[in-house]
Amino acid sequence: QVQLGESGGGLVQPGESLRLSCAASGRLFRPNVLGWYRQAPGKRRELVASVSSGGSTDYGDPVKGRFTVSRENAKNTVDLQMNSLKPEDTAVYYCYAMVGYKEYWGQGTQVTVSS
After folding, report:
1. What is the C-alpha separation between 19 and 9, in angstroms, rounded?
2. Angle at Cα 7 formed by Cα 6 and Cα 12, nearest 5°?
3. What is the Cα–Cα distance from 20 to 8, expressed in whole angstroms?
4. CB of 85 within 8 A of CB of 113?
5. Contact 2, 97 (CB under 8 A)
6. For 42-98, how does the pLDDT look when each residue is reduced to its tens digit (9 = 90+)?
7. Is residue 50 a contact partner of residue 34, using CB atoms and an 8 Å limit?
8. What is the largest CA-CA distance in the chain?
């Protein structure tokens, strides 16, 4: 039914920026929440940022002030602007969508921050 595809990951040096994009294919009705999670090796998946259908946002503490999440008016895409990247931001980033009681996850895109 619904698939989420991420793009924009890559290898960058500390202090640089990346922009991740997620696009939904198939039907996606009234997405209550769109956002991003990440998972580093040996760690649990954690919230990075999310935005509700009403426009409210939520950020994980490690990225507050550095990352910005946004969704287009059609509410079928969600982007993550990542500035001032740090080595500890290295992880696989997963796009997330909640529609009613259902959750959808992207395949993930690797972000590596290293000198």
Report:
1. 8
2. 130
3. 5
4. yes
5. yes
6. 999 999 999 998 889 999 999 999 999 998 856 678 999 999 999 999 999 999 999
7. yes
8. 42
